[in-house]
Amino acid sequence: MYTYTIKRSLWALLLLACTLVACEDFLEEKPDGKLAVPSSLEDLQALLDYVNVLNYNSPAGSSETSADDYYLTTDAWAALFNEGEQRKYTWAEDNLFHIDYYPNDWYSAYERVYYANTVLEGLQRLARTPANAAAWDQVKGQALYHRAQALLNAAFVWTVAYDEATAATDLGLPLRLSTDFGGRSVRASLQETYGQILQDLEQATALLPVTARHVMRPSAPAAHALLARTLLVMGRYAEAGAQADRSLQLYDRLLDYNTLDSAVSFPFPRSTRRSCRKARSAPPSRSTSARPAWTPPSIACTRPMTCERPCFSRRTQTAPRPTGAATRATPPSLRASPPMKST
Q1: How far apart are alpha carbons 228 and 241 in whole angstroms?
Q2: CA-CA distance, 75 to 98, in Å (whole number)?
Q3: Is there a cis peptide before residue 332, judged by omega within 30 degrees of 0?
Q4: How many other β-carbons are positioned within 10 Å of the β-carbon of residue 330?
Q5: 189-192-196 Cα angle (round to 5)
Q6: What is the tens place of the pLDDT at every residue in 64-109?
Q7: How many CB atoms lie within 10 A of CB 60?
Q8: Cα separation of 235 and 77, whole Å?
Q9: What is the CATH code for 37-252+274-335?
Q10: Considering all CA atoms of the chain, what is the largest pairwise distance in Å, rounded to the nearest integer?
Q11: Closest-CA residue to 234 (of 320, 145, 172, 179)
């Protein structure tokens, strides 16, 4: 009896061991291909080619919604299906990015940052060799460009205008530079925020090719142009001009507006040989569910450029601004400067 009990126990332990091994092998298999961990340069490049995240849905849409170069009638404003868009238009102080309207612009901005951080951390696990140096550098340059652009567009929406005298104490953005979700988000100063953007772009200009394989990918001219824009809003005009010149030296093709058909609804082509990089912001609901009217000053400023104005706007009425137009509140203290536009 004793011997029988020992044998039965041994068989039970053996069966348990086999079961545990089988379970471990089963759990190691990925149930979905989306859970695969990027392990090659091709994988990392594929992440950067996800245009729905990295080329579209910029928080610049919020800048346009709250801009002051157009107006909505009260009826058109009330017809907007998104309360967040309504509150952005009127410069309300809260509930601008309601959780019910997901994904909102804050999520979209930091989703791009997360993708860039994922790629940069993936590169740390891949050795740079003479054989893969060009591809390795391009992948890193693209990730740095995307992170810088996401932070810059977010800064346009959620921080005050850059002022060198107060930038060290003005609140900037949370600088999430890793994929660790456990890290505590703390707002950096505005000086630190723009310093990170400049650092990423300066590295990107040295890593990116002059001509990208596709217009959806960043290039050196695009990085110099974005660096110029960053320096411009920082008030460093001479440096901004130098970077703009450098961008044009590398890519100087311009779009001749005289060749566009202003009679069609969308006169601008999706992409042309004159574009060094293509991206767009998420369209605000007011641009699709209501017809905005442009204020006279914004039309007047483009009046000398007769070939441009019909491509950007179309006059549908000559009546002055109606008294029933939805009004905006006085900007709160955190919006002391007018909303800055971004692309």
Answers
A1: 7
A2: 22
A3: no
A4: 7
A5: 145
A6: 777 777 777 888 888 876 787 888 888 888 777 766 666 678 888 9
A7: 25
A8: 35
A9: 1.25.40.390
A10: 105
A11: 172
